[in-house]
User: Fold this.
Amino acid sequence: MPPTIGNLETVFSSVISLALTGAGLAAFVMLLVGGFQFLTAGGDKEATQKAQKTLTFAIIGLVVSLSAWILLNFLGNFLGLDFSVFNICLPGFSGPNCS
Assistant:
């Protein structure tokens, strides 16, 4: 069976979900790495600064990811759109959300 436009919608939705999950997982792993670096620094000033930078960048990444998600949800509610649903409406295609 050949792929259809509906399959592209499903793939896009899955990729977005995977990207958000990956960003959260990456932030969690980097927080663990930074915490481990901080605990094993042993009073070394350079190692402590490196650990602090790792923790800072992990938190910044988490804040940026969450801010993007919150902004999309806010804009979706304000404009009455659902950004979590990806629809492709082409001439001659009768998808579920196409008029």
In short: The longest helix spans residues 5-39. The mean pLDDT is 82.
